[in-house]
Amino acid sequence: MTEIRLQNINQYFGETHILKNIDFTFLEGKFYTILGPSGCGKTTLLKIIGGFVNQTSGDLYFGDKKMNEIPANKRQVNTVFQDYALFPHLNVYENVAFGLKIKKVSKVEREARIKEALRFTNLTDFKYRDIEQLSGGQKQRVAIARAIVNEPDILLLDESLSALDHNLRVDMQYELKELQQKLGITFIFVTHDQEEALALSDEILVMDKGHIVQAGSPKDIYDEPLNKYVADFIGESNIVEGEMLEDGKVSIYGRAYECVDGGVKSGTPVEIMVRPEDIVLKPLEEGHLNVTVDSILFRGVHYEICVLDEDGYEWVIHTTQKTEEGKKVSIYFDKEDMHIMVPGEKEDEFNERLELYEGIL
Ligand SMILES: Nc1ncnc2c1ncn2[C@@H]1O[C@H](COP(=O)(O)OP(=O)(O)OP(=O)(O)O)[C@@H](O)[C@H]1O
Ligand SMILES: [Mg+2]
């Protein structure tokens, strides 16, 4: 088992700075998800860990061993690519067997390991099927079987579920999570789907433009996003501007509210985030802010209600409470559900580190 340590990793393609000062340690045996918009560098980061791209600078360690010069085939890592990259002319069994044959693993051991990999991925009954005769989900399982048969310490999965339809995708999410727990190895999973990231991960790394903006448990990231970018990227959120008055007190539109955050200088402009599901509708004047109901959408489990406050800000609310368009009501949220963010805090820190690094380069 191996801990993966990325130290000051930078990646340039030509003049373009793709990964910027990546410092992160993946602990062994956990399910990590790298989440971020298209082009932010997720696949590049996986490829550096897998050994398919050599970083421009910085160090990669597996445990105490420096991996910078170690080729992909000498790393205890297997990758499941987005397009699965299966061999179409080989059947399921042969696809899974391929890597072991190349490595000249003995026939007896090979058979045992393939049997186990097929069992883990529920493919035993499909052993002799041609690849073209499999569904998307089955193909995905073959790709995973082909990776785990090598008994890697680390499995990298790049957008592995994105080709599947919604129901199958949810099924596969359960299977993937279960598989990771059974194998007990490190999974690093790449996706741009935030719900998937929340459902699967022990830890989520949110990336933006080559930076890791925040890393933490799904609950931490959802409840305590460091900035507006993370808050917006993970789930829906209402974000209004305000000012910190003192520890435990913040003002919104000039009105003081109790909050649970502190440690920010009095007078600092802040952003206050409230999740749509944390807002309660109350009769006019009985909540924090008076609002007018602008629109109501039925979403199955809840209504999605948009209301306008007196300053023209549109709040989104997820609730099972009923109301009517045009009605004047009031919104209320508990102090625990107000999350205070200081704009620019994290960006400043990043810029300082970046400048420092660029000075050395
Ligand atoms: N070999 C390469 N040569 C030049 N530019 C590259 C190369 N590989 C990636 N890039 C660029 O690096 C940036 C990050 O690419 P990457 O594939 O890591 O993004 P991603 O986060 O995986 O995006 P997506 O969600 O679309 O898969 C992109 O702008 C891409 O065009
Ligand atoms: Mg990618």
**SSE topology string:** EEEHEEEHHHEHEHEEHHEEEEEEEEEEH
What's the number of structural domains? 3
Shape: elongated
| Helix/strand/pairing category | alpha+beta
Bound molecules: adenosine-5'-triphosphate, magnesium ion
Distance between the termini: 34 Å
CATH homologous superfamily annotation of the largest domain: P-loop containing nucleotide triphosphate hydrolases
Number of strands: 20
| Beta-strand content | 25-35%
Q: What low-confidence regions span 5 or more consecutive residues with pLDDT below 50?
A: none
| Side-by-side strand order of the widest sheet | 6-7-8-3-9-10
Question: What is the second-level CATH architecture of the largest domain?
Answer: 3-Layer(aba) Sandwich
Q: Helix count?
A: 9
Overall helicity: 25-40%
Biggest sheet overview: 6 strands, mixed
Overall average residue pLDDT: 90
CATH topology of the largest domain: Rossmann fold
Report the CATH C-level class of the largest domain.
Answer: Alpha Beta
Describe the structure.
- The structure is a single chain.
- With 361 residues, the chain is α+β, with helices and mostly antiparallel strands.
- The chain folds into 3 domains: 4-223, P-loop containing nucleotide triphosphate hydrolases (Rossmann fold, 3-Layer(aba) Sandwich); 236-277 and 333-361, no CATH class; 280-332, Nucleic acid-binding proteins (OB fold (Dihydrolipoamide Acetyltransferase, E2P), Beta Barrel), CATH 2.40.50.
- 28% of the residues lie in helices and 33% in strands.
- The chain is built from 9 helices and 20 strands.
- The protein is elongated.
- The mean pLDDT is 90.
- Bound molecules: adenosine-5'-triphosphate (ATP) and magnesium ion (MG).
- Adenosine-5'-triphosphate binds next to helix 1.
